Amino acid sequence: MAKIRTLSSHIVHSNPWYSIRHDEVVFSNGMPGNYYVLEREPYCVIIAEDAGRFLLIEEERYTTGSRVLDFPSGWVNPQEDPHAAALRELEEETGYRAAELKLLSAPYAYVGISRVRSYIFATVGGLELVGQKLEPSEDGLKAIWLTRQDIGARLKDNPEASGDVLKGLAAYDLFR
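Given the sequence above, the corresponding structure tokens read:
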């Protein structure tokens, strides 16, 4: 099977958080086409479970104009190890420090537009409460513990959650 060939590639937008690349391509059937590709660092998602309850965050999201339910998560800084980023993000957003994390999966986050990876970790063992270290943009972020039933009830008919909640629970069930 023939692959898609790249004829040209250039950055059409760049900012401190991501870049958008435009590629002119020829598809395997010989037809010309275009791809716009999101380029940025990977991010980590942290699943913490204790006695049937999961640690999530609620946060105002400008992009949705609503308060969104999510697992603690964040970008991996350049040259930062995803494991170290996950430990850092868990503590910053929730105020909990994990003794150990286990990598569950590392799928592409937006497979249709990017090669960005999402490293999904689960905490192993207990958590120590040490206090949140929120960034100014995270004002109003709240850490909450919810059962699977609570999560399901909130998401059933309401798109208030990040897709990482569903992806994280699936990875937790499949690979824990």
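The chain is about 20% helix and 45% strand. Try to locate this feature in the token string yourself.
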